[in-house]
Specification:
7-stranded mixed sheet, Aminopeptidase, alpha+beta, 171 residues
């Protein structure tokens, strides 16, 4: 079962950095750098990403995702008058492909259906998450050579099954 906890303090930063670094492991393995260089680069990228998201999405909800009380992932969701934007979602490697992401996205879809607003996101064209979003009824709305913009529009997509693996209120 997954629950969400708002990212409210600096004590979450070590976990969030670990999570971020885990999403870049494959890329960094090809860089040819030693561990110190990789760590320095990823810390710089993590700080820049955090600052960029804070500037671009000042009202976004930043949550740590918990399984049995243990931090296993995080997401950033920006809700607005034009819809719900899933800015980012990630899980530690040991907690990927367990249905947690599917359950959370279905909750966003249920919320979107109740407000008649779309859920939007961007995904790497080559990543495994693209298949997940397609399976959940998201369709391409644009993009570039690397990233694909996608949306789930309540009127155009069937309502997904309930998300029993997720607990906790998501506003």
């Amino acid at each position: 079962m997954i629950t969400t906890a708002p990212v409210a303090t600096d004590r979450d930063e070590p976990f969030l950095y670990e999570l971020y670094a885990s999403t870049r492991q494959d890329e960094m393995a090809q860089a040819g750098w030693d561990a110190g260089q990789v760590d320095a680069f990823l810390r710089m990228q993590f700080r820049l990403r955090k600052a960029s998201y804070a500037m671009q999405y000042p009202s976004a909800e930043h949550s740590v995702l918990l399984s049995e009380g243990q931090a296993v992932g995080a997401w950033i969701v920006d809700r607005g008058d034009s819809g719900i934007l899933l800015v980012d979602i990630a899980f530690l490697p040991a907690h990927r492909a367990k249905g947690f992401g599917t359950s959370l996205i279905r909750l966003l879809q249920e919320e979107a259906a109740s407000t008649k607003l779309p859920v939007r996101l961007q995904v790497d064209r080559q990543g495994s998450a693209l298949r997940l979003y397609e399976r959940l009824g998201f369709t391409a709305t644009g993009g570039d050579a690397i990233r694909l913009s996608m949306a789930w529009i309540p009127e155009a997509a069937p309502m997904p099954e309930a998300a029993p693996m997720v607990a906790g209120a998501i506003p």
